[in-house]
Amino acid sequence: MDVDPQFNLQLVVSLPGHEERAWQVAWNPAKPLLASCSADKTVRLYSYQRSGDDQATSPSFSHISTISTAHTKTVRSIAWAPSGKTFATGSFDSNVGIYEKKEELDDENGLDESEEWECVTMLEGHETECKSVGYSATGTLLASCSRDKTVWIWEVHPDADFECMGVLMEHSQDVKCVAWHPTEEILASASYDDTIKFYIDDPSEDWYCLSTLTGHEATVWSLAWSPDGNYLASASDDLSIRIWKRVDQYNWKFVHQLRGHERSIYSVSWNIGKGTSSKNMGWLASTGGDGKINVWEISQPSEQATKDTLCSKLIASISSAHDVSDVNSVQWCPRSGFEDLLATAGDDGSVKVWRVVPASS
Amino acid sequence: MNLRVPLCKGRVSISCGDVGHVGTIWNSEIDLISSTPMEGLERHIRSWFASEKAAEIEHVISALSSGECSLLDIVKALGEYLTSEEDTLRTKGVQFLSLVIEGYPKEKLNRQAVHVLATFYCTKLEDTETITPALRGLSHLVKCPALASSDVPDLLSAMFTHVKMRALVQTTRFFVFNTIDSLLKSHSDDLKAMGDQFVAGYAALASGEKDPRNLTVAFAIARVILTEFDISKHVEDYFDITFCYFPITFRPPPNDPYGISADDLKSSLLPCLSATPAFGRLGVPLFLEKLTAGSPVTKRDTLRAMSLCLPVYGPSVAREFGPKLWSALKLEIFQPVDPATDKASLDTLQVFVRVLQSNPIVTDEGQSNDMDDLVRTVCVDCLEAIGEPEKPQAKAGMKILCSFLTIAQDLSSYAVAQAADKLVTIFHDPMEVSNRPSVITLLTDLLNSLAPPEDPPTPDKPVVTESGSTPLLQDLLAPSKDAVLGLLIVGLKAPTTRVPSLHGLAALIRIPSAVTKDELGYIVLEVSEFVGKEPDEAEDVTSDVLSLLSSIAILAPQHLASQVLPPLFLALPDRAPLRDAHSQRTEYWRALSSLSQLCAHPELFETFVIRLTTKLDLLRSPLPTTLANPPPADIPDAKEMEPAAAYAHAILTALANTLSAKVSKSRPDADVPKYINTLLPHLFRLCLEAAVANDERVFADIRLLRVVARIIRLVIEASPTASQNKFFSGLDSAYLGGQVKSITGGEFAFLSEEFKPMDAGASTRQRNTVLLYAAAHVPMKRDVSLDAIRLSRRLADLITWCSSDNCTPSQREAASHVLASLVNKRADDIPEFLDYLLDNYWSNVVYNRTISVGDRRNAVALWASITRALLVRSHPSAMVLTDKLFILIDDGDDVGWEAAHALGMLATRDEVLTKRNHAILKILYAQKYLDAVLPRILEAAQAVTGSRREAAYLVALASVLNAVPKALYLSQMPKLMPLLIRGLGLEDPALRVDIINILTNTVDAASDEKSSLTTYASALVLVMLKNSMVAEMPDSRVRIAALKYLALLPGVIRYDILHPYKVQVLKDLGKVLDDPRRAVRKEAVDARTKWYRYTG
Amino acid sequence: MNEIFNANPTIYTKSKRSLRKSPFETGQSLWVDDIEQQDWSDASNVEPIDQDEVFDLIRSIADPEHPNSLEELRVVSAEQIDIGNNLITVEFTPTVPHCGMSTLIGLSIRVRLMRCLPPRFKVDIRVKPGSHQSELAVNKQLNDKERVAAALENPALLETLEKCLATAGSQE
């Protein structure tokens, strides 16, 4: 595998703290907050800031709170609402928790002073472990999936009230991951049955599965939409990452494959990154059981001829990112100005933040 | 005494029941008593009513005993209370009277008085206020010898009519049971005379009792009634008041106030259940119900009860419920819930069958033997189960049949014959080939049950007789024996059945006179082919084959001599295989170890010794003796000594192993001593020649000397004084006088004089032979004659010999053994030597700072072993020498640390000074020593100056404590703990190991000293973690010890105390799992697993 | 779990001695009992974790439905353990191809190794190819860390596991 030496993954900070395996990290889309969840049933929150506005410097992180969730088992998944005011947790206790910041009564010292987060709702419905949760682009919908083979779609009402819009039992095995389209109300799910499925809301009817992607030869662990929403990346136990292109409204097609891991790939994340070339489609980061973090630059081929293909270049890679541990989750920071930051969570219970920096520096 | 009654009718008459009757008493004798005691009496009563002080009662009792007043005075004085309208006063009144009766000597009450009181109390039974004290009074009154038979019926009928048990509290009911109990003891005939009235009355009284204290009495009573009274009309009632408590589920409350355990109740109830056959028809169904429904505990209780009851209930009952009983027991045995229940069921079944067989009913006359039909069914069922040998039920079925063998001749012969035939048939059934292993295993179970339980046969209680005059069991097999033997032999052929067959044969030959000598020969022939075979196949049969053959060797050595041993001896090459001929080496070692296991028997051992010594002679020098014919190519050249030495070493090791097996038997073999005259000289010759020779010699290798030394120890240990005398004189003239002939058995290839191991200039080779010299002295008998005059000189010389610069550690060790052994056994012959030690040796060497620390360390070690030799026999000089060690420590001397360790070494057991080696050991020497030194050490160690001296004292403390039984210092743990933990910080691995061992030994016993352990628990966890990390602690002994200790804590410390550390411990131990040393990792795994399971 | 999948398995004898061979047996030494004075400070000779050691960890795990160890039932053997660079592959053989206990057995092996091996080792557990009718399903399950993690948070299952593991490490 040719590693283009133009970038390095530079460790910004290592944030230990979870007593057990850390499963997932989630950047708050609106505020300088980073959250992680763990088998120790807690969620940890970190705030970060840059000294001045110098893009070159890395932000500094500080732990601001550890939330003992209401879950009785591992907290497997965590997702922020677009507003950044709410986050949802999915747990092996089969419930989905909704957390909001305690209302501050005195407005003197503004809202952000307190980091008191409380569980405002517990969504029950899944029969077994909930494995992934996600908010739609507008924040009006929440999806969750479970080992019970179902995907649930909830409508978010005011005052932490939720209404179940649909229970989709399309997969033949555990559903490992759900991912909403960045702009439209299209939901994708990945499963232990090696397939990927798409769902939309038929205005006349209910939610239904409009398409199924096969091709992976083992469990599909993780999904990531391209920033422009035209592509979907999927990471699998078959040690490959596949990129699927949306060829027409409800049709996806396998266009590209990435290989660069020796063990299960647990997580992918795709963001615009800081690529330079005009054809640049953003940066895709992946990680997994081999403890390696890979960063690819995805770009369109220069010739129009081959329009259904993509080019990828491994621009940075680091092994033993969490010492000997598996790395379970990787996520790009979604906030502008921080596109070169990514966070990872590992079996060692620690969360690490990395920065993609030019090799020269 | 007389009942003197004043003239005041009214009151008393009211108080007693029958006026007229009482009246007659007054008239009988009239005299007035002085009013003073009466007043005293009333005063006491009044103040008692106020205070209820026992003292008041005592006054009255003593007044009564002294005759100052009479019972009737008391009754009179109590009068108004007894009749008071006020309930409490009435109660108290009667109470007072009862207390007096209770305290008053029973024999002093006469018939009359007892009668009056009894009648009085009976009337009081009607009054709910007075019933309790009245019953109390009665319970004591009936203990009076003077109680008339005529009173008993009235008394009881009053009780039966008025006493409503359910309305009374436990203590009151207790009086009732006590009363009946006493009556049963004293007036059982009167009770019998009452007939049903009593039997029924009591049943009614006792029913519904729940309190354990009362029940223990009630059960005792029931037991008596059931066995001695006619209860025929009330069987059900009594069944109810006994069986309703079965099974006892009572669990005593925490900090049990009245010390009655469930077992107490069980053991007092059981005799009731088994008291009468009348219960049979009612009891058995209940048992069956409990057995099928109950928990394991209930099952076991029920089974125990049945084993007791069935014999009493008798054959007819057993037979009536026979089928049900059998199927219930069968279930328990065929699908056992747990071993205990399984065992219990088997016992019950055995009882059941005994009962049936005690009076067998045989319908089918065709049967040759008179076996009860039901018993036959049982056997048939079991045989059926055996019919499917691969099923677990088969094993159960066989177990049942085996349990019958002791019941009755007919039964057992039937069982054995049938079972054996069945198995033989299945074995030979071509369809059942796959089940052969199970068949043989079952057969082995049968054979084992026929063989005497304990250890394998021995020559003096011979098991093989040509024709059988023999006890019962083995005859059972006779009919089927040939078939069985044949089966087992066939079983040997196939790999899958080989091991089972070997076990079967082992069982077979344990059955007295089951097999003839010829058959043994046949077995040996068949088995011998597996001896020394490559154990490559999945199953390694070698060990089973050898153990079978070695037990045959005891019965018929000649068979082994002729069939098994020759090929093994052939497998031993005359010359050592080359360095790279690994497979040949494994071959000779396999042959050697087989031989050494098989040749323990005297006859065989003799051959063994001869054959092996011959090999040793061949190996003596690696080059062929005659230069006429040059060595073949395959012979290693002279430089290649090691393979030859290793081969010789292997041969010697085999010899030593067999010898030690022979001497460490409970009754050591008698043939060992004779080898002091044959084997030992031979070995001495080989070794001493090698020591003197100037060319390379195999037997100069010290590793060989070590094994030879071991052999010498074993032979000398077994030899009587007489032969030891001869041997040691030879030994001394060889080592001290340069006369080797005697010790080498007359042969020596060199000039005797060349052997001078004790000379200052002696070569290392020669000096090494002192290992043999020492080996002989260690087990030397005390009464062996030695030249007492020159002894002191010899010992002094030996010490000088040790201090020579070219003295190696093993030479020094050998010398110290000689010193220790002789000093201990001959302390009285060596005053000069002791003076020499304390003067010259002390000042010139041990305490002489001008000589090298190394030399002084050695000196201290030597000093310690001599001191110890004296200490263990409580010799006065011991303490004098010990004090010198303290001097070294106090001076903060370079060798202080050494001396500190030595203090511990003094209290340590070793392999040299043991009873087995005839050392003089005074009991409690360790305790005495500890009492002498520990306070000194403690005091010094507690001075927290951090000085070298203090550190040395910590070392002393640890090594001493580590050497003595924990009981001696357990009580001091609170004081010791901080010191020990401090010691764990000192840079001395040996010290840390000592300390951790101490902590480990005290950890469990610490339960009573928990306080100290708990206080330091967290500190201990952390320090142990530190000591278990290779990065922190390079010495793996310490790491292992620390991990072992960590593994103990979860077992002895409450979770809430240590749970804050759990996460860290698991994390850190996770690192230790990667330790470079396997042994350490093993402990880490263990500790980590324990901590994973460690939860609240 | 009431159904017995294999009522009467063949019981094999345990390898009698500890598996570890002496230097003589391995041919490293000429001497039958080499009492080499080993120094306790471990700068010298490192003993790497090998097949036998891993086997020692799992051989005495109890079978869920028989009173026997996995070794006695030949479910595991040293030969079926492969040690690569920080990667250990353990293969096990169900007593019967339809054995419903296979995942439980595999799980017990995984948990035992999780607790007893240095974290640097990644462990793959598979049933012997062709030894089980739903081989792939079992393997997939056993190597899905998420499912394993969830299983270990199921009290009932955990209890059964601990029962199997209780005997682990006890030699004879």
CATH topology of chain A: Methylamine Dehydrogenase, Chain H
> Between the first and last Cα atoms of chain C, what is the distance in angstroms?
27 Å
Q: Into which percentage range does the β-strand content of chain A fall? A: over 45%
For the report, how would you describe the main beta sheet of chain A? 4 strands, antiparallel
Low-confidence stretches of chain C: none
What is the CATH architecture annotation of the domain at 47-165 in chain C? 2-Layer Sandwich
> Strand tally of chain C, please?
3
The gyration radius over C-alpha positions of chain C equals: 18 Å
**Class per helix and strand makeup of chain C:** alpha+beta
Per DSSP, the total helix count of chain A is 0
How many domains make up the 3D coordinates of chain A?
A: 1
Strand content of chain C: 5-15%
Classify the oligomer.
heterotrimer
Instruction: Kindly report the greatest chain-chain contact and the residue count on each side.
Output: B-C, 41 and 34 residues
What is the straight-line distance between the termini of chain A? 23 Å
- Total strands of chain A: 28
Helicity level of chain A: under 10%
* H/E element order of chain A: EEEEEEEEEEEEEEEEEEEEEEEEEEEE
GO cellular component, one term (chain C): intracellular protein-containing complex
Keywords (chain C): Chromosome partition
Organism (chain C): Pisolithus tinctorius Marx 270
Domain MIP18 family-like (chain C): 52-122
Can you describe what's shown?
The complex is a heterotrimer of chains A (361), B (1096) and C (172). Chain A is globular and about 50 Å long. Chain A is built from no helices and 28 strands. Chain A has one domain (7-47, 61-105, 114-358): 7 Propeller (Methylamine Dehydrogenase, Chain H), CATH 2.130.10.10. Helices cover 0% and strands 54% of the residues of chain A. In chain A, β20 and β21 form a beta hairpin. Chain A is mostly beta strands and 361 residues long. The model of chain A has no long low-confidence stretch (mean pLDDT 91). Chain B is mostly helical and 1096 residues long. Among the domains of chain B are: 1-148, no CATH class; 167-252 and 260-275; 277-359; 384-388 and 397-515, no CATH class; 601-625 and 637-785, no CATH class; 1004-1096, no CATH class. The model of chain B is unreliable at 1-35, 461-471 and 624-631 (pLDDT under 50). Chain C has a domain at 47-165: 2-Layer Sandwich (GMP Synthetase, Chain A, domain 3). In chain C, 29% of the residues lie in helices and 9% in strands. With 172 residues, chain C is an alpha+beta fold. Chain C is globular and about 50 Å long. Chain C has a three-stranded mixed beta sheet with strand order 1-2-3. Chain C contains five helices and three strands, in the order αββαβααα. Chain C has helices at 51-58, 102-116, 135-142, 145-151, 155-166; strands spanning 81-83, 87-92, 122-127. In chain C, a hairpin with a 3-residue loop joins β1 and β2. In chain C, α2 (102-116) runs parallel beside α3 and α2 (102-116) crosses α5. Chain B binds chain C through residues 390-392, 499, 538-540, 543, 579, 582, 585-586, 589, 642-643, 646, 649-650, 653, 703, 989, 1030, 1034-1037, 1070-1071, 1073-1074, 1076-1078, 1081-1082, 1085-1086, 1088-1089, 1092-1093, and chain C through 7-8, 12-13, 15-16, 24-25, 27, 30-33, 40-43, 45-47, 49, 53, 56-57, 115-120, 162, 165, 168-169.
